[in-house]
Amino acid sequence: MYGKISITGSTRDYSDNIKKLKKAIHEAEAIVIGAGAGLSTSAGFTYSGERFEKYFADFGKKYGFKDMYSGGFYPFKTPEEMWAYWSRYIYINRYTDAPKPVYDKLLELVKDTDYFVITTNVDHCFQKAGFDKDRLFYTQGDYGLFQCSEPCQDVTYDNEAVICEMYEKQKDMKIPSELIPTCPNCGKPLTMNLRSDDKFVEDEGWHKAAARYDEFIRTHNGKVLYLELGVGFNTPVIIKYSFWQMTAKNPDATYACINYDDAECPDLIKDRAILIEGDIGDVLDDITG
Ligand SMILES: [Zn+2]
Questions:
Q1: Looking at the structure, do residues 80 and 185 belong to the same domain, yes or no?
Q2: 158-188, pLDDT tens digit by residue?
Q3: Do residues 137 and 83 make contact, with C-beta atoms less than 8 angstroms apart?
Q4: How far is the CA of 189 from the centre of ligand 1 (A)?
Q5: 242 Cα to the center of ligand 1, angstroms
Q6: C-alpha of residue 222 to centroid of ligand 1, in Å
Q7: Is residue 283 located within the same domain as residue 167?
Q8: Which residues of the chain have pLDDT under 70?
């Protein structure tokens, strides 16, 4: 629907935009945060380079991939190898703290305002930073949950204990066979609760969070700040286009976008948009500093 509307890039002076965003956060009756992968990248969860070498040099050498994302698509020949890879991946990206306190800074900025978060991130960083879990909607799943690969029912399972055990007990890039997780209901293999195909399980927690998000959107129509952080164009419909649309519908709303290299919006809302290109952590520092 936005295909024919020309896009306005971030051209205004950076410090002017920082002031505007600070004011918008301060004056907002409600803030809807939409977060994508760029927010976790800014928090130090990088999937290639030094961090890949630190944790996956052995896998890289044996299988030839050079970043964690590619490794996630590698067709490992056995479940023992596949789970050695994934348990290490989930352990470092879900069960350890983010290297930089970007999520903590964000919480400091919004905690006294009525806020809600919608995110396509699956790394649990919002909860770890202390965001209210009743104000979060994880649309695409969570590394910390398993689901049946079939799936035989709409249920998910906490995986912390088993992931930690796989992580600790793996040897030569293989986990012990007895740790391969199977569905307690049907016995088929378990898999991550991530939306990668139509087998994604939307469990009870997912539906409740979706309903709370809808309710928040429906009941907040005044001075709302739609704050988009690090959202790319992989799945723009979930956050970006939806924020553009809601801003367009509400004349009192402000749309703010912080993105490393891609902060833009349709002309239709450009008078009420704050577009900032840069590292999200640095920008939050400048707002609070
Ligand atoms: Zn099952």
A1: yes
A2: 999 999 999 999 999 999 999 999 999 999 9
A3: no
A4: 8
A5: 34
A6: 45
A7: no
A8: 1-12
Residues 232 and 107 occupy one common structural domain: yes
Burial of 210 (0-12, 13-18, 19+ CB in 10 A): middle
* Number of domains within the chain: 2
Based on the fold, state whether residues 177 and 273 are members of the same structural domain: no
Model confidence pLDDT, tens digit, residues 253-263: 999 999 998 89
Q: What angle do CA 113, 23, 229 make, to 5 degrees?
A: 70
Judgement on whether residues 218 and 279 belong to the same structural domain of the protein: yes
- What range does the domain containing 170 cover? 49-97+145-192
Put simply, whether the predicted model's pTM sits higher than 0.85 gets the answer: yes
Amino acid in the structure at residue 103? Y
Give the pLDDT of residue 234.
84
Please tell me the distance between residue 134's alpha carbon and the centre of ligand 1 in angstroms.
28
Residue 256 belongs to a domain? yes
282 φ, ψ (degrees, to nearest 5)? -65, -40
